[in-house]
Write a structure and sequence with these properties.
Blueprint lengths: L2 H57 L6 H12 L7 E8 L2 E2 L6 E2 L18 E7 L2 E12 L2 E10 L1 H51 L14 H57 L4 H33 L5 E4 H11 L1 H6 L3 E5 L3 E5 L1 H18 L5 E8 L3 E8 L6 H4 L11 H6 L6 H11 L3 E7 L3 E9 L3 E2 L3
Parallel strand pairs: 8-10
Antiparallel strand pairs: 1-2, 1-3, 1-6, 4-5, 5-6, 7-9, 9-14, 10-11, 11-13, 12-13
Helix pairs in contact: 1-3, 3-4, 4-5, 5-11, 6-8, 8-11
């Protein structure tokens, strides 16, 4: 069952119960008040006649049976008994002569026999006779030495008729109110659930692949808050899906690049090995073929080692320790001294003493990789600048070269595995496109970031930020 129908039914039940229960209580309260008033008026009238008869008993000394009857006749003739039925009976030997009343002003069958009454306390009963309801009071009264029974019956049918009419009218009003309430609650439920319907529609559109739709928010109530939360969840989900999609694309590119990197040296190795197997080669040709096989095998070995290193960096935990960056950077530059002299590169070092939490071997590998990339960008001649600077959060290392630089649209891709701007040139220099991917992981391990600033024909600057609370060393 839809929420709209549930809301409508619940609203209808609440209104029906409240209106029905409240109406019945009101009718019952009105009925009880009316019946009490009628009974009070009947008892007042009865007691007035009863007092009059008692006064006659005290004043009259003849004690004739017809005295009370004549008084009642006179009262009836004067119209004082027009709203009531009275009956006077005689009691003999403790038995009431119900069938032989001394007087009655209405039909005798308008009365009912009664018992358990006395002169001190009368007995009141309610009974129905021929679609009419009577309130009857019976009590004993003394007249000389005799005991008589005086009954008064009062028609209270109008109270019951009024209640019946109220119930009939209430049922009609109740049906009308419920009909109106059904219509109103339906449209109210439709209005209240419209945002939920829109939310459901948007959910289906998003599930079908339309990520541009959003739930319109027109209210600040709970449904409005739900819509805002849903839109936020959708944006976060889309962002994660895009990241996942990009990750899958990167994996596909990684596998494609890896297969391509494997294909080239394997093709050379298989080709030269097949040549040596099938052809009779001279010693010079054999030496040349073996050289190709060796160089391509070394490329495969280098590729496997770098891949293994990249996987280790992604999955291994490293122990950091405080160390001065200056001697470590100096050692890394010194280890590249041969290539620097060979390429006639001028080195400009601007190092300050700073201590930072690092993994020394990894950070040294990072510096060496970046210097190696800088040397590859400068064929002969040029300036290599290496600087460091202590910061409050960690340290910054700057490595700049005056090489060929990079196009701006290539900078965001250079840290991807197997990505190379000039593929043919990189292979000649022995690169496999994993160096900067390894550098990126090393920086991540050090809770830092790596940023490239480059301009074609002018050079590149790499800015490495390392976390770990660096500070200038004091002597």
């Amino acid at each position: 069952m839809k929420f709209r129908w549930k809301l409508m039914i619940i609203t209808m039940l609440i209104v029906s119960f409240s209106f029905g229960f409240g109406g019945m209580l009101l009718i019952q309260y009105s009925y009880q008040a009316s019946i009490k008033q009628e009974k009070r008026a009947a008892r007042n009238s009865y007691e007035m006649i009863l007092r009059m008869l008692k006064e006659i008993n005290e004043m009259d000394d003849t004690y004739q049976n017809q005295t009370f009857a004549s008084v009642l006749k006179r009262l009836n003739w004067q119209g004082l008994l027009r709203d009531s039925s009275v009956r006077l009976l005689k009691e003999q030997h403790g038995e009431v002569q119900w069938k032989q009343p001394l007087y009655y002003n209405r039909k005798n069958d308008n009365f009912r026999r009664s018992n358990g009454f006395s002169t001190k306390q009368g007995k009141a009963v309610v009974f129905q006779n021929k679609n009419k309801v009577y309130y009857q009071i019976t009590s004993k009264i003394s007249y000389g030495k005799e005991t008589m029974v005086f009954q008064g019956a009062y028609d209270i049918s109008e109270v019951y008729a009024t209640r019946h009419q109220q119930l009939v009218s209430f049922r009609k009003i109740f049906v009308l109110v419920i009909g109106i309430e059904i219509v109103v609650s339906y449209f109210l439920a439709m209005i209240l659930t419209r945002p939920l319907q829109k939310l459901s529609q948007v959910s289906k559109q998003i599930a079908d692949g339309d990520y541009s739709v959003r739930v319109p928010v027109h209210t600040e109530d709970e449904i409005g808050e739900l819509s805002v939360s849903f839109n936020y969840m959708t944006e976060q989900l889309i962002e994660k899906l895009m990241k996942l999609d990009q990750l899958l694309k990167n994996q596909e590119e990684f596998m494609g690049s890896f297969a391509h990197e494997m294909k080239t040296p394997l093709t050379s190795i298989i080709g030269y090995a097949d040549l040596m197997r099938m052809e009779a080669l001279s010693k010079e040709e054999q030496k040349e073929a073996c050289g190709y096989i060796y160089s391509e095998g070394k490329r495969l070995q280098n590729l496997s080692l770098k891949l293994m290193k990249l996987l280790v960096l992604k999955n291994q935990q490293f122990q950091m320790k405080k160390q001065d960056l200056e001697p470590m950077i100096q050692e890394a530059v010194t280890s590249m001294q041969y290539r620097l002299k060979e390429q006639d590169i001028l080195v400009n070092l601007n190092l300050k003493k700073a201590i930072c939490k690092i993994e020394p071997d990894l950070l040294k590998s990072l510096i060496l990789n970046l210097i190696d990339n800088a040397l590859k960008s400068m064929n002969s001649g040029g300036i290599l600048t290496v600087e460091d600077r202590a910061t409050q959060e960690g340290a910054k290392i700057y490595i700049s070269d005056t090489g060929c630089g990079m196009p701006k649209d290539e900078i965001s891709k250079i840290t991807e595995a197997f990505y190379r701007i000039d593929k043919s040139r990189s292979r000649k220099q022995g690169g496999v496109g994993l160096g900067l991917a390894i550098c990126k992981e090393i920086v991540r391990i050090h809770q830092g970031e790596m940023r490239f600033i480059s301009q074609q024909g002018k050079g590149t600057t790499v800015i490495i930020t390392i976390g770990g609370g660096a500070y200038e060393k004091t002597n």
